[in-house]
From TrEMBL:
The chain crosses the membrane at residues 73-92, 98-117, 138-158, 200-220. This is Potassium channel domain-containing protein. The lineage of its organism: Bacteria, Pseudomonadati, Pseudomonadota, Alphaproteobacteria, Rhodobacterales. It comes from Pseudaestuariivita atlantica. Keywords: Membrane, Transmembrane, Transmembrane helix. It comes from the Bacteria.
Length: 224
């Protein structure tokens, strides 16, 4: 069931896992390539933690309005928890690999969510100002989480492979490097000595490019 979860169960409100992608099987009749894409989307959706978080919140909604509110609270609280986790990782200087893998997962899953809900899936019908404003805020928070997340990965995972401007590098330096790479695709002021760092920086550029593509796709008017 797609089409905005069949208009949220015919506008009875969202249901747990109501946003689940359709099975790839029907798409085989249309195109093998489309079926492959749907299979990948189906897999990634089921690996996305926020979908289970949303389902848990929606299950507590007693009526239509309550379920819509629960879904919004779930999305907002998940965003807040992501930022809190990143802040704590930076604050305590966690250099363990699990921290970098966790942040990488959150960056990737956020990008997938925006791709799924704003490109692959049928768009919602709500065009209210409040909806657009909230959508913009969550987009910006997700985008800059990616920038801050890449800075964490670079600083706490590959600090010694980067030539920093000062003698005592800080996370702020890594954040400036991440911003520079994201918006100019250049890190000339921060020479690197490890190919792994170059791959991470290239991944960040692709992350930014993907977000820009999503913006462009959503700005192009569609014909009904």
């Amino acid at each position: 069931m797609t089409a905005s979860a069949q208009t949220d169960q015919e506008d009875g409100g969202p249901v747990p896992f109501g946003d689940r992608p359709e099975s790839p099987a029907p798409y085989l009749k249309l195109s093998p390539l489309l079926a492959l894409g749907q299979s990948l989307v189906w897999l990634l959706w089921h690996l996305s933690l926020i979908e289970y978080w949303k389902a848990a919140w929606i299950a507590f909604g007693r009526d239509r309005a309550g379920r819509y509110l629960a879904r919004s609270v779930a999305i907002d609280s998940f965003m807040g928890l992501k930022w809190l986790a990143l802040i704590l990782l930076v604050w305590f200087g966690v250099e363990a690999q699990w921290g970098r893998w966790g942040v990488s997962y959150l960056i990737g899953s956020a990008l997938f969510s925006y791709f799924y809900y704003h490109v692959w899936r049928a768009p919602p019908k709500s065009d209210s100002h409040a909806f657009q404003l909230r959508r913009t805020m969550t987009f910006l928070l997700s985008f800059f989480f990616g920038i801050a997340g890449y800075a964490y990965i670079l600083f706490f995972g590959y600090r010694d492979a980067i030539t920093w401007p000062g003698s005592t590098p800080t996370y702020t330096d890594a954040l400036l490097m991440s911003l520079s790479n994201a918006f100019t695709a250049s890190f000339a002021d921060f020479p690197v000595t490890d190919d792994a760092v170059r791959r991470i920086l290239a991944g960040e550029v692709l992350f930014v490019f993907a977000f820009l593509v999503i913006i462009v796709v959503n700005s192009v008017p569609s014909r009904n």
